[in-house]
Amino acid sequence: MAAQDRISQLAQQIGDRLQNASQAPEEIHKGVQQAVRGAFDRLELVSREDFDILMDVLQRTRARVEALESQVAALEAAVDPKAADAPAKTDATFPKADDAPATDDDR
């Protein structure tokens, strides 16, 4: 379901709850709160705490990958001194526009 549909559904639910304005304010508040909580649950949001934990894990993982890449480069340089002169090409790098293979239009 698209986000716009979810928002429309939420607005409809809130409108339905507010139509019964003769109810006590506490009941209206509870009804609106339930509708909003249900909408947020369907959006599959994560808490700020979970987000911060995942960001910390990601940063540590990136640091570890960078350390391993430098170790691999050092080991490759020790095994093949000629490779030390050429820049290391990893899967994470993309070819420059100049390095792109020729197409039929280029020929």
If you had to describe this structure to a student in words, what would you say it looks like?
There is one protein chain. 67% of the residues lie in helices and 0% in strands. The chain is mainly α. It has two domains: 3-42; 48-90, no CATH class. Helix 1 (3-19) runs antiparallel to helix 2. The protein starts with a helix and ends in a 22-residue tail after the last helix. The model is unreliable at 94-107 (pLDDT under 50).
The radius of gyration is: 28 Å
Q: How many separate domains make up the residues?
A: 2
> How many strands, what sense, and barrel or not for the largest sheet?
none
The number of E-state strands comes to 0
Number of helices: 4
Q: Structural class of the helices, strands and pairings?
A: mainly alpha
- Mean pLDDT across all residues, rounded? 75
Straight-line distance between termini: 47 Å
- Estimate what percentage of residues fall within beta strands: under 5%
Give the overall form: rod-shaped
The percent of residues in helical segments reads 55-70%
Q: What is the string of SSEs from the N terminus onward?
A: HHHH
Low-confidence stretches: 94-107
